[in-house]
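User: My collaborator and I are trying to settle a disagreement about how two of our proteins should look. Neither of us wants to argue from intuition anymore, so we agreed to look at predicted structures for both before our next call. Could you fold the first one, then the second, and keep them clearly separated?

Assistant: That sounds like a sensible way to settle it. I'll keep them separate. The first protein:
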Amino acid sequence: MEFIFKQSDYINWTNDFAIALGSEVKNNSILFSPHIAVGTTQSFFLEDGFSACVNNYSLNNEVIFTRHPADQFGVIIYLYHFHTSNSIEYKIDNTTVNVVDGTHYALQITNAQTFHQLKFTKSTIVRGLSIYLENDWIQKNASNRALDVFNYLKQVNYFQQFFSAKQKRLMDEILDMPENHSYPELYIKSRIYRILDKLMETFLQRDISELPERISEDDFQTLQKIETILTKSYDKSFPGIEKLSRISFMSESKLKKLFKQSFGMGLFEYFQKNRMHKAKEHILSGKYTITEAGIKLGYQNLSNFSAAFRKEFQCLPSELNTL
């Protein structure tokens, strides 16, 4: 099945996608036919010129998305977590990339005036968020520095960013929201705003022209794999540069250089920062005591845990609820 389209706001996009599938739309959400997919696709209007689409489904059939260049400039931001036992192929203009089987995170920013095709095979799991910023919204809301980034996008048509741990957490909160949540639309929209805010913050802090599109596709995928290892190792000590170098098939110096260039900090600093933010989440959730949170994150010595926490947040774990 192939869905051919030009980018439009995601409310209309969802309706067009449903028509192509022969499916219905209810409350801006597609009711998939079982032979196509199991799960949901739902669109959200945030404000004039700013819309989004949340996808969380497993395909029971091959689907090809073919996007032809839009008539006007706009920015499409894709934040996705794919899992497949086969492969995923995507084309942007004259560039073709094949992603081999496994689990992959992707954060890509594209010019709506480009050709883009994405091929998913049967059984692919698609979890993620698409954001569409129309030109009028950009001109109204972006500062001069942010406009420089979007003007740069007009020249290169697309670039990749790394999917940070914070962005993953926000996206997972959207995708794993309980079905009986009391205010689902507000909950989801607030996190979409936060994701866009963090992304714009990255644009303002760093030179986009020196970011990941200058890294080879293989190195990009490898660095994202290393980042995933670091953010799933919270209950253990830091894996160590030597081990990470072996996993990445890079020299230690190359790995350290590319990681810092791509994520803005060193490997251990990134590991520790996200480890402490996970600790903060555990404590504020009320599910764990401070001692339990420390142990859960691999600390046997509570003093060491408290010192690391204070270094990151300028307060002790015990002071969180008093701030």
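The second protein, kept apart from the first:
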Amino acid sequence: MEIILSLPLHSRVWIYQSVRELSAQEVTDIRANALSFLNQWTSHGNNMDAAIDVLYNRFIIVAVDEQTAPASGCGIDKSVRFIQDIEKQFNTTLLDRMHVAYKAGDSIQTCSLSEFEKLINTKQVDENTIVFNNLV
């Protein structure tokens, strides 16, 4: 599996956030599944120059160098099916964009947008809280 940082800066990136922390074994298994997926991932018959990794036991990062092969609709659909399979296999949610991830001490927490608003209103999170922006 290619390390994401070795892909060019112009690569297209998707970030999928798990609503729960993934165990070390789950991360290992997801990386193995990703390697298998990457070995057969194509878009219109062209192999994708891509990488997938899991960061902070929470975020699955998918990156594609579109200068070698554009990630067209069918290629993107295949990657979304891969993520859906990961959701089912590991009993987590990765496609719900209505959850916020933020740092609480040394851990990463997630909650719904409405719950996060309550945390702001009760000053449990503030302008110094690190909030992850997955909308790249």
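Some points you might bring to the call about the second protein. Helices lie at 24-40, 73-90, 113-121. The mean pLDDT is 90.
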